[in-house]
Amino acid sequence: MKLLPLLYLLCGSLTAQDIYFVDEPTLTPDGSEIVFSYNQDLWRIPTDGGMAVRITALEGNETNPSISPDGRYLAFSGNQYGNLDVYLMPLEGGEIRQLTFHEADDKVESWSWDNDRIYFTSGRENRMSTYTVPLAGGTPSRHFGENYFNTVHNVAEHPDGSVYFNESWESSLFVHRKRYRGPFNPDIKRYDAATDTYTKLTDWEGKDMLPVIDREGTIYFVSDRDNEEYNLYRLDGNGETERLVASDQSIFSPAVSADGSRLAYVKNYQLYTYDPASGQERKVPVTVSGFEGLAKQQDFKTAGNVTAFDVAHDGKKLAFVSRGELFVADEEGKFIRQLNTGPGRVREVKWLKDNRTLLFNQTVAGYLNWFTLPADGSGEMQQHTNENRNNRHVVINHDTTMAVYFSGRDELRMLDLSDFSSETILTDEFWAIQNTLPRWSPDDAYVAVNARRDFEMDILVYDVDDKTHQNLTETGVSEWGPYWSPDGKYLYFHSSRHQPGYPRGGGDANVYRLPLRRMREPFRAARFAEIFSEEETEKDSVTIIEPRGIMERIEQIGTAFGDQGSLAVVQDDEKQIVIYGSDQEGGKTQLFKTVLSPFEDPKTESIEAKGAGGADDLVTADGKHYLLGGGKILKLDLDKNKAEPIELDYTFRRSLRPEFEQMYYETWANLEENFYDAEFHGVDFAEVREHYAGFLPYVSTRGDLRRLINDMLGELNTSHFGFYSSGDEEETTFGSKTFDLGIAFRADAPYVVESVIPDGPADFYDINLRPGDRLVELDGQPIDPAQNREAYFTRPSVDAEVEATFERDGKPFLVRLHPVSYGQGRDLRYDAWVDENQRRVDEATDRNVAYVYMKNMGGGELDNFLNEMVSEGHNRDALILDLRYNTGGNVHNDVLQFLSQRPYLKWGYRGGEKTLQPNFIPDAKPIVLLINEQSLSDAEMTAEGFKQLGLGTTVGMPTYRWIIFTSGGGLVDGSSYRLPSWGCYTLEGQNLEKTGVEPDVTVDNTMLDRLHGRDPQLERAIEIVTSGAKR
């Protein structure tokens, strides 16, 4: 192992004072020194401040430091092998030992007071649980039982042997979300294993979390109970609380010295201490030596990374965008030049009529605005809009004199390309996300555009001269992506004609065309006469729209099988060629064309175009067609049904610092434009932007950026939020995978079988493993009982087969197994919990009540729900539908429609039994719906709908209050953020994000219930449903 002295020689060229983005402080027992994480390493500093010394330098990130109560050791988490493991080193320097090896992240939390065990949180068997690993090493032990939903974390051991902890996601995954009020709020809880006593010590409706305890048993924690910011509190033995620090800036990551003389925490990304004796808070001045890494330029490639493009009208030049930069090249991509557009992110580019000027949009303070620039780089860039709206999806007319584009959520604008003035031509519900391109008619007389009606897309047509518009479709489903035929006679679109796009996505869509006026089929006699005519036939290019009966003229184009969309139409003499993406062959989306010719049947063929899943970005210039696929510009040959890539191999340079700043503002701007609540939950979101922007100059790693943006978003007190980012600079050399054999081993004997997990790799009749069998060898390697079991189960990849030798009554026997990933092993444990619930219901009701559980509200779980309902649900007298711990999705309507079925008549064959219609009648039977504080998102929609429809009785606890439907946005480097854009309300107008759903019958399941295998909620549901009452 690596030897690391205490005084680590630094080679950096800079000295930074008053640093930011420190985290996770821990104190020496006497409170004289602090170890903290910063810039992916651990540092040590006197409590009074000064020059910090780096004490770790492993590959990857070291975090979560914790000093043992006797001051001899430092435990921490590090991800040098791709995931966080627990490491141990002497505090005064020496060998670093790896104590855990599992693929799941292991996050160090605290120590036992006897200095013998390290507490850590891990998601190896469920979403999260608390474990301890011995100081000497060995297999970790899970605490608080094997129940899948005991998610104890933030554990602090009391000197009396009890532990204090939290259980909520709001104190683990979403600590940075401020001001949450609801049933899944974190409270300070206590459990004493010696007496099997569980106590909930605080009962504030907000967030009480992160307990820490000194050697005298004094308990400190943070809470937002007084001013909606996290402040420091003390908790006495009677459950009374005392605020110690009253700050308008929140406190994170508290720690206390073993002797209780000092506390340390983070505020405004800096280190602070608190002296309990004097009541004084003090900022710790920290100086570090290091270097500025984010300003260093890095090489990036355009090859395979093109995100937008256009071709000049003369067909000789390309303009394209890669990683937010603008480039110009010749048609073959041999000569490429990068254009200087400044720090914003370029998204779209168009050539103007002179074949020398580029129109493009790029971000200014996060919002997209319009610019022009000479394509040869000879002149200055000109900005034409400067507003806090995203201006996007520009389409230039055929005459190259005007353009249309979307602005913000609700405007379609026209841009005059002579002076770049713009005017709003339509105000409607366009949304600022999920737009299709507006389209000019061939004669530039009309613009077709999608606008929202009841969430679905209708096709509106704007008359440029009259400045009026009409809705051509007016259905309750979506008609996406209107595209004019080049002869002006048709509008093409794709649609799932009988399935709305929301909430589930609309199902498979097909391509249709809408004849704009009533047209007769061509006459063969007329065509024959043209053979002998010397006059050239005049082609009608005027667009005429005949509204009468227009929706009755819709024609389907191409196959009815599969999902089609993203279309374009080109004209080849009399032929109309419709190009689109479809998964009709083998389920993989690829490019197809359907050729429509007079006097011939339509002909559909596939096009070889690697990476292209559609054609709505098709560009035609000088008679040639181009589109984008797989990050490459493809030249499309419709005669050969093939698209060849244009090689654009160019290296350019960027540094991450300005890129990170641009990403910050773009994320904020898109949340500002798309957040579902115009009042931003009562927060001044512009002020929030400015506050957190003040820390941008101090960001030194991608982890700092993640932390900063997520903290900014956390101010909204919203569900369904988050910023996600990873980069090559964070990659580690090695990775590891942990496999699962589907065997539960004893906690006190980690190689002895306790049970076989149902449906796992070991659950086969010819294996016959029994409790008490001991694993003694794995793939020929003898097992050392003192070694950590997961070290044997962790390898560079999961093997397809393993050979395990067990011993029973002193006799070895070989078992061959197909291991699964640890994630699949988690799922098996989840399924075992569901199976146990099924067993309890079957046993208590003599199999007369169906039990159906849904883990989430996704398509897979919907299929499982329907399978259960047409079998067990059909054949039994009542139903318990369990949505506890359900993590949401979008199938609420499907579930509720099925449950709402009730009988309306009978029918039968002569001599046969008369049976009911419909076939399935759940609404005619007693139903109980189980919900709890972890039922979230679409589970809450389902629960509210269930109550409104009067389908039965709801039992359990109020739901999470985590229900906003969400979309997302992508950033210049592939990072992403969530957009909580659609609020959900009761029929009376109550916001479910703020109210959740109250059960008809309130029953709690505590940690102690789960620990001992009790389920009062399920027992009450059985009692109610077997009473026969519908509600």
Automatic annotation (TrEMBL):
<dbReference type="InterPro" id="IPR036034">
    <property type="entry name" value="PDZ_sf"/>
</dbReference>
<dbReference type="Pfam" id="PF03572">
    <property type="entry name" value="Peptidase_S41"/>
</dbReference>
<dbReference type="Pfam" id="PF26549">
    <property type="entry name" value="Tricorn_N"/>
</dbReference>
<dbReference type="InterPro" id="IPR001478">
    <property type="entry name" value="PDZ"/>
</dbReference>
<keyword id="KW-0720">Serine protease</keyword>
<dbReference type="Pfam" id="PF14684">
    <property type="entry name" value="Tricorn_C1"/>
</dbReference>
<protein>
    <recommendedName>
        <fullName>Tricorn protease homolog</fullName>
        <ecNumber>3.4.21.-</ecNumber>
    </recommendedName>
</protein>
<dbReference type="Pfam" id="PF26550">
    <property type="entry name" value="Tricorn_2nd"/>
</dbReference>
<dbReference type="InterPro" id="IPR015943">
    <property type="entry name" value="WD40/YVTN_repeat-like_dom_sf"/>
</dbReference>
<comment type="similarity">
    <text>Belongs to the peptidase S41B family.</text>
</comment>
<feature type="domain" description="PDZ">
    <location>
        <begin position="735"/>
        <end position="791"/>
    </location>
</feature>
<dbReference type="InterPro" id="IPR028204">
    <property type="entry name" value="Tricorn_C1"/>
</dbReference>
<dbReference type="GO" id="GO:0005737">
    <property type="term" value="C:cytoplasm"/>
</dbReference>
<keyword id="KW-0963">Cytoplasm</keyword>
<keyword id="KW-0645">Protease</keyword>
<dbReference type="InterPro" id="IPR012393">
    <property type="entry name" value="Tricorn_protease"/>
</dbReference>
<dbReference type="GO" id="GO:0006508">
    <property type="term" value="P:proteolysis"/>
</dbReference>
<dbReference type="InterPro" id="IPR029045">
    <property type="entry name" value="ClpP/crotonase-like_dom_sf"/>
</dbReference>
<dbReference type="InterPro" id="IPR005151">
    <property type="entry name" value="Tail-specific_protease"/>
</dbReference>
<feature type="active site" description="Nucleophile">
    <location>
        <position position="937"/>
    </location>
</feature>
<feature type="active site" description="Charge relay system">
    <location>
        <position position="720"/>
    </location>
</feature>
<feature type="site" description="Transition state stabilizer; via amide nitrogen">
    <location>
        <position position="938"/>
    </location>
</feature>
<keyword id="KW-0378">Hydrolase</keyword>
<dbReference type="GO" id="GO:0008236">
    <property type="term" value="F:serine-type peptidase activity"/>
</dbReference>
<comment type="function">
    <text>Degrades oligopeptides.</text>
</comment>
<feature type="active site" description="Charge relay system">
    <location>
        <position position="993"/>
    </location>
</feature>
